[in-house]
Write the structure tokens for this entry.
Amino acid sequence: MKINAQDYKFFNIEIVVPIVFLLLSFGAWQFSGLSGAFVLNQVIIRFIRDGILVLSLVIPVVAGMGLNFAVIVGAMCTQAALLFVINYQVAGVAGILLVIFLSIIFSLLAGLAIGYVLNRVKGKEMIVTIIIGFLANSIYQLVFLVGFGTFIPVINEEIILSRGIGVRNAVDLSMYRNTIDKLWLFKIGEIEFPLFMILVVLLFAGMIYYLLNTRFGQEIKAVGSSHEKAEIAGINVDLIRIKALILSTVLAALGQLVFLQNIGMFDVYTAHMNADVISCAALLAGGASIKSAKIRHALIGVFLFHTLFIVSPQAGQNLFHNAALGEYFRSFVAYGTIAFALIVNIKHEDKRLVVSPPL
Amino acid sequence: MKLMMNNGCIKPPQIIILIFLAVLLGLAYFLKMDLAGLFNESLIKLVMNGVLVLSLIPMLNAGAGMNFGLPVGITGGLIGMCIAVNFRLAGWPGFFMSLLLSVAICGILGWIYGLILNRVKGREEIAGTFIGLSLIPLMNYFWTLAPFQNRQMLYPIGGQGLRPKITLEPYFYNILDNFSLVKLGPLEIPLGLLGFYGLICLGLYLFFRTKAGRAAMATGENEAFARLSGIDIAGARLLAIILSTVIAGIGICVYSQSYGFIQLYDAPLAMYFPAISAVLIGGSNGRRAFIFQAALGAYLLQTIYLLTVPIANEILVPEITEILRTLITYSIILYALLYRERQRGSGHEN
């Protein structure tokens, strides 16, 4: 890996991509005419919302599985837990604890299943995780749009559509809303720092950083750099990969919980939809690649990507008198970043294969 | 059937699909639905979606995987049709002009797409997915800003940007569907449409008999062996990818003339998963596909889609059709990915 890093010193993705994002967001901000304080406040809110979701992507990348688009499954696990708890009307602290407990259980099981599946498609994990995400979304819709009211008994009539079958499109979470966001809220001028939540995100970052430096983390890194070498070293490759995926899915589930409680409204069928693409693009924006990701990439990436995300619709409105164009620019940046990372990385991978003996 | 047997007998997806179809047909019979009408419609649906399914074959056979970048070809076809409609070309001239322009534009797009995919050999599927996904917002810029003049295509208010759905009613709506339509009692057989489909099948069949086609086929079967026998791997793959893109462009023209609208903006996103699952339902293993499999798969999948709509309307929850469709689509693609990799990976895993 060291030789590899030196080879690309002059055109280093790790530095070039964040700088491009910085320039783009700065340019878009200039055209948007939004005040710096507003943008900064928004970015801090997004940092809290999406931080843990982005962090959840780091471990699979380190384990050599590429971008885990199946974080969307973790997000759906949380939403499922939330809907069940709301359905059985468990309120207050007990309700929140039950949601956390259930979402961890669901995501553990989901992560186990996905990890098992991915062990059968080594080298093609990313496309499979995309399809798993879509498939899980279909199952999720089947359970909540058809299952509720038919084979799942409905206790809380408020969340059910008027025909008696299926959950409503939007469920109010006001009883949980902003319960922890407003803790330790500091104000410096116009800028608000919800210190507690920032610390929570940083705590998760620290935990993953610590984990990657323990013995288990070393094993993950070994698996990520070469399956053969890891196996020779006596590491159970399949097991490590499954563990990495479980961790990622559970983190994603917790991340979605933070996301939902921050928003306070819960769009049952769309809240999770772009969680995977946006988080992946954010991670890559911070300078990660599909082969290597560090905690700092995730933290920097969330800031850079979401700054661009916040200012571009307004910039589109001011530049072309059409807000939709800014919207298109946003989705182009999200998808384009991933496409670019894939094309560049796979090419590098090829070059490395020539030097080292084939797998 | 014979081809399917040759290709390692009928696999679970086909059995599930056939059972599902039989159940649906039984239900349709008991609900006293118009079976002849359904049959007529199923033929149109076959060709309407079948050309898009056919477009996957060259890439599959050249070893470039399932074409998750199908929106690239679809986009080319949409541009072609929009230009033809912009000049108010109606009837056959309009349709042929659309085809011609689509082929030209898709040729260029396919060439670029092929060059990119050749750089990411072995990971075409994931790269193609995101190339397609990032092309859509780029094209949204084009649809909004391109200087089209025909008022019927533009947003009624403001006059800037194309509509998401452009009607083909005054241009070439159903021109192939109604071409030499033969009526036998209650049955209506669209001979012109089926003939057009047959022509594309024949073209593909002949392509794989030419030297270039054989080279592409050999590349997909065993790349190392093909290289040793002096085949230009990159060239063969590029040709197959261009061909796939061009057929996809033709496919969307056929689709739109049947459907009656040109669908722009995010519409191409809804098309590639059903197409891929169709070729898999037909019995392809995700690494090779025969024309017969593409046709069979397209027919089975479209017939199921057709049957589920009225049946689900009889049930309380109408959304269940759409959910079941996507469920079938994604399960089949996932199954194919897993099954294919297990076949390939069994060598060094054990």
About this structure: Chain B is about 70% helix and 5% strand. The first helix of chain B runs from residue 2 to 6.
